[in-house]
Amino acid sequence: MNPEELPQGVRQNEVRQKLLADARTKTWKGDINAHYTLAVIYSSGQGVAQDYVEAARWYRKAAEGDHCQAQYDLAVCFEKGQGVAQDYREAARWYRKAAEQNFAEAQYMLGRCYDRGQGVAKNAAEAAKWYRKAAEQGHAKAQYMVGFCYAAGQGVAKDAAQAAAWYRKSAEQGNAEAQYNFGAMCLNGEGGPKNEEEAVKWWRRAAAQSVAEAQFNLGVCYDRGQGVEQDEAQAAKWYRKAAYRNLAEAQFNLGRCYEKGQGVAQDYVEAAKWYREAAEQNLANAQYMLGRCYDAGHGVKRDSVEAVQWYRRAAERDYAKAQYMLGVCHTMGQGVEKDDMEAAAWYRKAAEQGNAEAQYNYGMTCLSGVGVPRSETEAAKWWRRAGEQDFAEAQFNLGVCYDKGQGVPQDHAEAAKWYQRAAEGDHCKAQYDLGVCYEKG
Predict the structure, then answer these.
(1) 257 with 236: CB under 8 angstroms?
(2) For 313-347, how does the pLDDT look when each residue is reduced to its tens digit (9 = 90+)?
(3) pLDDT per residue as tens digits for the range 239-249
(4) How many domains does the chain have?
(5) What is the CATH number for 84?
(6) Dihedral, 131, 135, 137, 138 alpha carbons, nearest 10
(7) Are 59 and 33 in contact (CB under 8 A)?
(8) Which residues span the domain enclosing 63?
(9) Cα–Cα–Cα angle for 231, 289, 238, rounded to 5 degrees
């Protein structure tokens, strides 16, 4: 029977056995390429039982003969503890030997060693140097890392134009992280002109490689009509892809789509489900929205106690809306014991973050002296802050303060100004009092 007539598996085995025999013969003559071939055979288990210890032994023989690929592979063995005891210092030493022979992958790995302080002292400048050597040989991951170094000013002077140039080189080779980062630079006009269409183009490429952040950003672009025509259905599609990859922000946005019926049929149950997914990843705005779902009975059974628990989790992460709602719950005794001091404390936290409703409510607690010492001055101060955010009820109250000289010097002109602002916000009592001001002059 001719060799060509043998079954393919038999022919392949004969080839492997011949390769093994040939490699063994050449090793006796000190042929470093044969040493390396034998290492690969033992490492892959081609024609022999897989044996990482034997593979490492032959990698070392080839590496000691300055075979750069063997030096690199031996370094990998030491890094992984494959066939040898794990030893990061030895790994770095062999990466260096291969790197000094201009082996791009070893240069990249040596850069990573310096980046992480793995087997060598951490040194950002050395990391950037070795990344650049590999990058200049067209190594895509190294090009990405050089871009990152320039973007962060890590081991090199910060330079947005250089960062963009290196990210682009890597992105053009298909590196998904580079595609994502270059897209972000295009959107923000960093290192070059702002270009939303270009951002979308690169995020689409990264999204096709399942980069969740790129999928999310595409969703945002379709949501806002940034670089593409606004399309709520497309936005929801991309949010969903990122949400299934467990990106909390995308889960939140998909929940919002279902709540509002944007790009999908309105479905409170689905909204609550996605808010919960994000909330369980400690995304504060999702925790707040899940609390609102329990408060209103949207998509879940109404449960004030459960609502308070989610408000509290968000509030403890300094989410102002949740702090305000926790204040309301303590004021009303809704899901918790009524506690005016606790309510005032949460109103104040939210107020200090600029939440207008909390500023108004905290002003009311200051005026009444419920939960805090009574202070007309403090009340007027917080109503002013809310009023400056066009909160009509606070504007009206501040008008009253100026009218009566309550917490502020009496000033009818100032009173009229605040009544005017509240009246423009359709506050009917302010409209009446403004009329009185005009009547009396």
Answers:
(1) yes
(2) 999 999 999 999 999 999 999 999 999 999 999 99
(3) 999 999 999 99
(4) 1
(5) 1.25.40.10
(6) 140
(7) no
(8) 1-101
(9) 25
